[in-house]
Amino acid sequence: MSKVTAFGKLQLPNVTLCAMTSVNVRATVKAMEYSMRGIDFGDAVLITHEKPSYLPDTIRYSHTDPLNSIDDFNYKMVYELGSHIHTDYAMIVHADGFIVHPEMWRDEFLDYDYIGSPWPIPPEGDTTTYRDRDGNLCRVGNSVGIRSKRLMDFAAKAGIPWEGEYAFGKMWFHEDGFICCKIKHLLEAEGMRIAPLEVAKYFGHEAMIPEIEGITPFCFHKWNGTNSQYPNFMLEPAPVRFLRKVHGKVHGLLHGGND
Questions:
Q1: pTM of the predicted structure, to 2 decimals
Q2: Residue 252 pLDDT > 70
Q3: Total domains, the chain
């Protein structure tokens, strides 16, 4: 069970705040620091190819080879992530998705091996997206979320092959879809559980679906709809934009051109 200290900070000693990336690293670090407002995690780790000079002491660096594509990210999130985590759970955040309302924490979030933002119902005629092996609709996934250590270790330890899903003329490899749809039956056979929509709607928001209306989430992913109110650390700060504009004008004057 979590608890709140006299200073009002939520204590999550069995959860690691975690991010894996080789792009938007500075923004990712800022997102991690923002996620730590009001929460004491058992650990915090940035998994990337080179330790940033600006990484604060509150965040541990863990090495991975460069993620040269989104495919590298998806694969490593399934087969490597667990090796960087030393607690029972990990809270995964990105530069574009992180914790925004620590006060909305619910202990029931840790009753599951995977919880993320709810998925929308796919368009009529789409019988592939958000479906398990039997064609049943899966309503909860999303890579910004909490995973148990046993789930993070499962695919590598069990030797589960990395398989995509063919749809719309190409093969798709999404780590959240692989876990929450493609191998869902294997996870459930091992006693692992993915949170239901009824709980996940209080955890995170990505798609603006009817079920989340009027709910303030613990975390978010992407700046859609009501999520547009949350910080965007990938935007260049105003002073930097101003200096860049001034530099451009000076450059134009010196070279006889216009900016």
A1: 0.89
A2: no
A3: 1
